[in-house]
């Protein structure tokens, strides 16, 4: 066996200044992020953070807020509910590439590398500062990590300049040391990020409160009517289990809200401002309502919707306590993380079951679905109504205020469109000839679904059988027993709402006010 030195002492085995710079760059990046995330986690733990001290979460959050609507559409379309994982992965890649670039630049002109690195730190500082509730102390982690990273760039890339003076052996040793320390820094950086997240666990307090929260009993519980669930395999369950419920929000870190510290303020055009705390809310007469929640980003045939039984106190009662002043036509609800939704006042004061929700399907809300308190408003897309971790209701006007998505190109008003979806068979499936159950769900929140029809190829519309109607605010399952003949066929579905209006065939993308068009699939019958 050749001794190590024989291979490594070849001139070609020496590391180039650029490669050395790249390794130092990645080391500096990893150390910066590792230190910052660890400190951010500790700050969260001891409760000194104001907003988002974690630079990863702050940059991600700022990125989400700045994302143009088309990119958000695209990301949700491609990654669905994994859009946040996709964001984290892309951020890591960008970070690695930027670190390499800084190191390579520094290997040529140290000062230039230092300046570029400093600019990147400034971007991160700006992101942390831009987050809701940011305070000066939130800047500590990124500034600390940034200074250490800067020092690494300034001192370690300088070595590259003297490499020619080194002996072969030195080059060999320093290469091993350099690569080793580079890998070590990345591993330690990643570990520090992970430890920071675990430590952050303000999570703990909120989690304990959640686990010990006994969901209030209601005077008239809501149950699933017999026959609402057709029990067809492959069709979305009539009540979607909480853990499988779709999740859409702009929160990169799920807010961990301790109900003991939670309160909801009613402000704006009211006779008297009201502040509701957790115990006061729980003492109110709670109601249950079955409501199918719906995301405006749902594509035709998509599954960004779900049905649940929600427990809560009617928003109209709270607004009555505050006394809405004349002239108001909107309620701007704000989340603890800064998200806002603008809901027509009427939808919160009319007869419908708009609730300040504390429980979903008899369980405390999951943190990602808004624990301790969220809004659920029948008939409106979530982006204009379903604020999770809600902390303020400002009674106002559409002229004076806008919800989060409106300046980003989405409609100020978001009534849910009538739609239907084929769940089985799946698109492009192969089935055997004979009777095939074509089935799915249809919804027209707050108008109600009265019919569903299926078209095979270009044949006539045929009535499907509907599951029993639970309420106008709830989707209905449907099934059409299709006498399938061999060949390739297209199947199209349309719903009819209580106004008698069939679902439009006109295609529309999700932006600005919800997708439309018939869901069509293709199946091969053998
Ligand atoms: N705080 C907060 N609440 C929010 C959102 C958000 O981004 N932040 N998104 C809304 C949107 S667009 C939808 S569709 C629903 C989704 O609720 P879910 O995640 O519980 O299904 O939450 C709404 N409430
Ligand atoms: Mo949504």
Automatic annotation (TrEMBL):
Keywords: Membrane, Transmembrane, Transmembrane helix. The keyword Transmembrane helix applies. Residues 253-405 form the Oxidoreductase molybdopterin-binding domain. InterPro entries: Ig_E-set (IPR014756), OxRdtase_Mopterin-bd_dom (IPR000572), OxRdtase_Mopterin-bd_sf (IPR036374). The chain crosses the membrane at residues 21-43, 86-105, 112-130, 136-154, 177-200. Residues 507-526 are annotated as: Disordered. This is Oxidoreductase.
């Amino acid at each position: 066996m050749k001794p190590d030195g024989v291979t490594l002492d070849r001139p070609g085995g020496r590391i180039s200044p650029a490669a050395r710079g790249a390794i130092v760059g990645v080391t500096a990046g990893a150390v910066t992020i590792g230190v910052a995330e660890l400190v951010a986690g500790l700050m969260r733990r001891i409760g000194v953070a104001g907003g988002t001290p974690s630079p990863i979460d702050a940059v991600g959050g700022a990125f989400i807020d700045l994302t143009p609507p088309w990119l958000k559409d695209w990301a949700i379309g491609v990654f669905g509910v994994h859009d946040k994982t996709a964001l984290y992965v892309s951020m890591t890649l960008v970070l690695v590439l930027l670190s390499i670039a800084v190191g390579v630049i520094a290997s040529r002109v140290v000062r230039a590398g230092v300046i570029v690195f400093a600019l990147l730190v400034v971007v991160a500082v700006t992101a942390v500062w831009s987050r809701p509730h940011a305070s000066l102390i939130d800047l500590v982690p990124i500034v600390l990590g940034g200074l250490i990273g800067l020092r690494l760039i300034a001192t370690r890339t300088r070595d590259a300049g003297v490499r020619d003076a080194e002996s072969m052996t030195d080059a060999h040793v320093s290469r091993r040391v350099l690569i080793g320390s580079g890998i070590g820094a990345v591993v330690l950086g990643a570990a520090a990020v992970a430890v920071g997240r675990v430590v952050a666990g303000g999570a703990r307090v909120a989690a304990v409160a959640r686990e010990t929260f006994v969901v209030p009993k209601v005077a008239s519980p809501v149950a699933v009517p017999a026959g609402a669930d057709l029990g067809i395999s492959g069709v979305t369950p009539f009540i979607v289990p909480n853990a499988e419920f779709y999740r859409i929000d702009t929160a990169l870190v799920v807010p961990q809200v301790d109900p003991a510290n939670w309160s909801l303020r009613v402000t704006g055009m009211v006779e008297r401002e009201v502040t509701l705390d957790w115990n006061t809310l729980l003492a109110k007469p709670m109601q249950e309502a079955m409501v199918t929640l719906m995301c405006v980003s749902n594509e035709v045939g998509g599954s960004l919707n779900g049905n649940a039984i929600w427990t809560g106190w009617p928003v109209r009662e709270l607004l009555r306590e505050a006394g809405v002043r004349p002239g108001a036509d909107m309620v701007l609800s704000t989340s603890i993380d800064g998200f806002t939704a603008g809901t027509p006042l009427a939808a919160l004061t009319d007869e419908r079951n708009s609730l300040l929700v504390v429980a979903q399907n008899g369980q405390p809300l999951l943190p990602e679905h808004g624990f301790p308190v969220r809004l659920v408003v029948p008939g409106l897309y979530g982006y204009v109504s379903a604020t999770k971790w809600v902390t303020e209701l400002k009674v106002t006007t559409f002229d004076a205020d806008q919800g989060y998505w409106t300046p980003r190109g989405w409609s100020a008003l978001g009534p849910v469109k009538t739609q239907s979806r084929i769940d089985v068979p799946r698109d492009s499936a192969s089935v055997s000839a004979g009777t095939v159950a074509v089935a799915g769900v249809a919804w027209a929140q707050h108008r109600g679904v009265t019919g569903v029809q299926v078209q095979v190829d270009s044949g006539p519309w045929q009535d499907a059988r509907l599951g029993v109607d639970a309420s106008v605010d709830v989707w209905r399952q449907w099934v059409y027993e299709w006498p399938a003949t061999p060949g390739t066929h297209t199947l199209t579905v349309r719903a009819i709402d209580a106004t008698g209006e069939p679902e439009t065939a006109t295609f529309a993308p999700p932006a600005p006010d919800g997708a439309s068009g018939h869901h069509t699939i293709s199946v091969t019958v053998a």
